Structure formats: C-alpha cells, structure tokens
Amino acid sequence: MRPLFYLCSLCLPILILSCQSTRKENKNPYTEDKEPKLTVNLRKMVMSQDKANSWDEIEYTEIWNPQKTAIIVTDMWDRHWCESATERVAAMAPGMNKTLTRARELGATIIHAPSGTMDFYTDTPQRKAAINTPQHNAPEGFPIDDWCNLDKDKEAALPIDDSDGGCDKPCADGDPCEEMTAWSRQIATISIEDKDFITDQGQEVYNILVENDIDQIVVMGVHLNMCVLGRPFAIRQMANLNKNVVLMRDMTDTMYNPEMAPYVSHFEGTRLVVAHVEKYWAPTMLSSDFTGEAAFAFNEE
After folding, report:
1. In what order do the strands lie in the sheet containing 69-74?
2. Which of 26-40, 41-55, 212-226, 274-288 shows the lowest mean pLDDT across its residues?
3. What is the rounded CA–CA span in Å between residue 138 and residue 135?
4. Beta-strand (E) ranges in 130-212?
5. Which of 6, 133, 143, 157 pairs with 229 at a CA distance of 20 to 30 A?
6. d(CA 100, CA 156)
7. Nearest 5 degrees, angle CA 252-CA 253-CA 257?
C-alpha cells in the first residue's frame, strides 16, 4: 500500500499544477480589452496627385468607442419658414430617431441643439444638465460662441447659390414662402431621453464634450449649407477646435433652390455641399454604421 500512496502523493502536485495552468489559460480572454467598439466607414475628398484641380474620393474605416462619441442634432425644428424644408425634416426625423436610439444603446452622448428654442426647454432636466455641466475654457481667445462664416482661407465658395434663402418650392398658397421665425421647439418625432442634453450654445457644447471625454463628434441635421456648417457648435467650429468631427451625410439636407446656380436638382445640390464638407472640413459617414440598416433617402431622391 505504501508504494501506491507514495506514487499518488508524487502525482498530486502535478495534477494541481495542471489544473492551475488550465484555469490560468481560461482567464486569458478576460484580460483582453473589453472597451465597446463601433466600426465606422468614412469618406473624404483629397486633392489629386495626378490631375491638377481635381479631387479623389477616399474611403476608409475607423474603430470608435461609442462611449466616447457624441452626436449633435442641429436645428431639427418642428416647423421651418420654407414648407418644403419642413416636409423634408419630417420625413428624415423617424430615421434620425432610430439612429439616435441605437447610438444611446451603444453608450453615445446625445446633444439636441434646436437653436433659438431654449425657452421651450427651460425647465427640462436635459436643458439644466447642459447648463450645469462644469465650465471648461476653450483655447484663449477662441470665439467659442460665434457663428462660423465661410472661411476663404480654408475653403472655396459653396458650390450652390443660396442667396435667395434656398426654398425650392412655393408655399401651399402658391406664393413664395416668406422668411420668418416659424419654429418653437425640436420636432417631436425625435425623442429626448433622460441622459441627453439640450443646448444651442457653443460654450455649453464644449463643456459637455470635455467633461464627458468625447473623442468623436457626429453632426446631423439641417441645413448643411447654413447651420450645420456655421453654428458655434457645428462642423466649422469643431474642426477649428481640432476635434474629430464627422458629418452624417444621409441625415442632412440643404436650403437650395434649383432655379439658382448651378441649376441642378435640390438633392444634387445637397450632394455638392456634402462633397464641399468632405474636401475642406470633415469626413462623412452614414447612419447605417449605427443602425445596420440601409441609409436614409428622401422619396423624391
């Protein structure tokens, strides 16, 4: 009996070591980085190396942490002075809401920025959350709350003429739509959830981005040739702050009348402005990267 006992006692440490080794290997997957990841397909335009005054379209992929991503919803108002613009906002809003819902599920920060309507949201927790976010100073001398006009040092003129206001159709009475402040809030089709923010201030947006350690900023909304480029929280501003800003190109629209240069369809005019953004300011993406569904398109398009 002693020899058998002695043999077993010799094997026991080997068995223990073997079990420990197995347990250690099984733990290895849990040492891997568990940071959430989102694959984003981006597109931009770069100056051609082969042909003067020509641009090449470049597509590439980035991996983002959605918890370090913010989406800024720009001026998706309940009503616009141009009736056809109001109709397109209403058509786009359900798809935009689906995109935002998925982005929230992934952990993204949602900032609703319906400019000029903050009185409507005064008592909401989302507006108070934006106001109460700790102050973070922008670079010294940076005009954080200023509108960003076309910058001739950084970009060419816009490829569309929107000097008539850009309304592409008459109003229902047959007369041209009259420019006025028609909006009072963000369109109700887009949900504003508990952890979202509401603001139209460049400084407040900057505070939210810094406080929440945001690395990527997606801008969606209207109108691309005006507010989406020019607002103090939108594309030119974010690019001037050296932020990684991206336009969601299927979730935007322009104010463009085909009776103005370059005399193309309204939707071709929008595509031209998207290309302008891709050349001079930011890459673009599609909502599909969040939803896994087909990109949005207007029925007329």
Report:
1. 55-64, 38-47, 284-285, 244-253, 216-222, 69-74, 109-113, 197-198
2. 26-40
3. 9
4. 197-198
5. 133
6. 32
7. 170
CA distances, 204 to each of 75, 124, 135, 267, 300 (Å):
16, 16, 8, 33, 37
Confidence of residue 7 (pLDDT cuts 50, 70, 90): very low
Structure tokens at 280: 């001079």
pLDDT of residue 33: 58
Q: Would you tell me how many other CB atoms lie within 10 Å of the CB of residue 62?
A: 15
Pairing, β 69-74 against β 216-222: parallel
* Cα–Cα distance list, 36 to 28, 105, 110 (Å): 18, 11, 17
Q: What is the pLDDT of residue 26?
A: 45
pLDDT of residue 53: 83
Tokens found for residue 44: 């931009």
In angstroms, the CA 146 to CA 119 distance is 20
